Amino acid sequence: MEPVLSNDIEEVFNTKELNEDIGKSGIEVGSESARIDYDNMEHIDQNIDGLKFCEGMIFTSLEKAEELYKAFAKANGFTVRIRNTRPGRRGSISSREFVCSCQGFCVEKKQKEVSVAKEQDRRTLTRRCGCEAMLVVKWDKKKNIWMAHKFSNDHNHNMVSPKSKCYLIPNKCMPIVAKNLVEKFNEISLPIGKVPTVLGNMDGINFNERDCYNHMRDKRRKDLVIGDAQSVVEYCRRKQTENPNFFYAIDCDKEGRMINFFWVEARGRLYYEKFEDVVVFDTTYRTNKYEMPFANFVGVNNHLQSIFFGCALLQDEQEESFVWLFTTWLEAMHGKAPKSILTDQDQSIGNAVKRVFAGTTHRLCLWHITNKFPSKIGMCKSTSGFHKEMSNCIRDSISPEVFEKDWKIIIERYKLEGNTWLNGLYEIRHSWIPVYNRTIFFAGMNTTQRSESMHSFFDSFVNNGTTLREFVIKYEKALECRYLDEQDEQYVSKYKFTTKAKSPLELHGATVYTRNVFNLFQDELTVGIYMRTIEIGMDGTYTIYEVSCFKKPERKCLVYINLDSLNGWCECHLFEFKGILCRHILGVLHKRDVEEIPAHFILPRWTTKVIYDMDISVQRNCDELPLVLRNMIFYRMVNHLSSYLDTSEKTYQLIVNSIEETYNKVVAMEGPISMKKIEEPREQELNDHTPLQDPVISRTKGRPKDSVKVSQKGRIMSGVEVSMKRRRKCSNCNVLGHDIRTCDQLNEEC
After folding, report:
1. 0.70 cut: is pTM over it?
2. Are 289 and 469 in contact (CB under 8 A)?
3. What is the per-residue pLDDT for 287?
C-alpha cells in the first residue's frame, strides 16, 4: 500500500505555507508521502488542533510517532497508552499499538472469602469503557520506514473539556521548584500536601496533594535503590567529606548486616569539650521502621538547654551492644569519660557502664524507680499514707542517717520487711537516693526526664515508618532547630535581664550568669535575704551559721564559711549538686554585706562567657586543644576566607599568596608529611565492595506486644480502647459475656 497524505492534513498544511513556516522541522509534503518528524514540539503544538491521522502516514522514528500521537491526544481531550509491542529480529521492534486509555474493560478480581468483621474492599474508579480508538505503527522492511498501519479515531466516550485537560495525567506538570519545596517540607516535617496551596497562584501548576506524596514515594525508592543501610553509609561518608569532624561507626554481623549504628555531629563533639561533666543516657525511644532503640547521649549547656553528644540505633539491648556503644562513643570523645552519668535501672546498662566508664559516678533515674511503687507494693498501700511518707523520706532527707532511719520506720509500720523488691532497692540506695549524691555535680538532675523530653521533640520529625536514612537526615534538621533556639537564648542572656531583690548580689549575678541560670539564682537569693542567720560558733577558720526560715524555724541548715576568703559550704550541698549557691549561703553573704558573688562560687559552665562556637579569637591561643577542635578552628578560618574570594582579584591573590607562604614556612620547619585522614569510620567486617544489608526488626526487652485487636466492624482498635474495653457481666446470673437484656436464664423463665 502506497503511503498517502490525508485531505485533512492538506487542508491544514499546504506545501507553500509549510515551507515558509516550519521548513524541515516536522512535515514534508509530497505527491508520494507524508513524512512526520516531531523535533519541533512547540511549533507542532500550535497546529496540532487541525491535524488528523490516517493510514499510510510516515514517521521518521517510532519515538516521534508516539510523541506526535500523544500530542494529538492531549489537544483532543484524551490520553494514550501502549497496548502491545511486537518484537522483531535481534531485539528490534516490528510494530507498536497505541490505544486510548479508555480501551478495554475493567476486570473485577475474584472475591475471596472474608470474615464478617473485615471491612469491604475499597471502591475504585475506572475509565475503561471499550473505546476502539487506536494507532498501529509498523516498520516497513522494504522501504525502511515507520508507517501508520492502522488508525481509528472512533471514541465511545466524552472528550475532556479544555478547562479539565489539566487533570489528565500527561498534562500534569510538577515543576522543579515544587519538587524542591515538597522535599524541604518533608525534611522539616511540614505537611507536604500543602505545597499545591502555597504555589496555587503560579502559572503551570497542574498537580495536587496526591502528586506530592507520590513524588516523595518515588524519591524514597530512588534513594533506597542500594538499600536503606547502604544509603546511610553513603550519606555519612559525604557528611564526613564536608566536615572531617563528623564521626560515625557501624557494627555489622558476619553476613554484612547492620546491627548497631552510631554517629555524632561535629558540634556535638565540641559541646562535649565544654560540658562533659554530666551525661544523661536513655534508650526508651523506638520510633523508626526497624523498631531499633534510639540511644542518645544528652547533656546540659550553659542555658539549661538539652544538647546532644551523639546517638545510636541498636539492634538489641544486651550488655555487649552497650559496651560497643560506650566504647565507640568514648573514642569519638577522644577518650574523655564523663564525670557522672544518669541512666535507667537496667542491668545491661549498669554492667556496661562499669566496664567502660570505670571512674564515672553512675546514678539511676529516680522517676522510673518510684513509678513502679504502685505495681510492686500494691494498690492498698497507694491509697494510704505510704506514698507520701516514702516520698518525703526519699526526697527530703537531709542526711544518709536520717534517710536510713525513716526508711526502716516506714517499712516496719506497713509490714513490708518481706518485700524483696524494696529490699533490693535499699541495697542499691547509693545509686538512686538523692541524699547520697548531693556532693556530686549532676546539674540538679535526679531523673532522665531531660532525655525523654527530647523524644517528644523528635516526634514532630519522625514516625514509625521512618527509614534509617530519613532518620539521620531529620535528626540533623532537628538539631538545627535546637541550635537556633540556643542562639536566641544567647542573645537574650547577653542583652536582657530583670531584677527583683535589687541587691548588689543580684545585679552581679545578672552580669555573670545566663538568663535561665540567673532565674534560678534569683529565686534562691529572693528567699535567702529573708532567712534567719545566727552565728553559733567556730570550726577552725570557718564560722558556723545556723540558717533557717522564719515560717519554718525547725528546718535548719548549718553554713560553714571563712569570712576572709568567703570560702565554705552548706549542709544542703545545693552548690555541689547543682552549681548554684543555695539560699542559706546567700543569706549569710547578704548579712555580711558582700556585693559580689565570690569567684569560687561561680561555675564557668553557667556563665555567658562559655565559648563553644569555635570562636577563633579565644580558641587559637590555647595550647592543649584536642585535634578535633584545632581542625574545626582551622576550617572555620578557611571558610571565612573563602567568602572573600570573589570580592576582587587583589584580595584573591593576597589570600592565595599568604596561604602558599605559610605552607612553605611550615614545611621548612616541620618537614614534609604524608596526607592522611583525621579519622577513619569504623565499618566492622565490611569492605568497599560489599553493600551493607538492612537491619532486621529489633526485638527489645519487655513483654511482647499483644496480637492486634479488631472491632466488630474490622477497625484496628487503639491501645486505649483495648485497655478500657471490659467484658459485660449479667446482673441476673453473674456470668460474664452478656447482660440482663440477653440473659438466656431470664428468657427461659419468661
Report:
1. no
2. no
3. 65
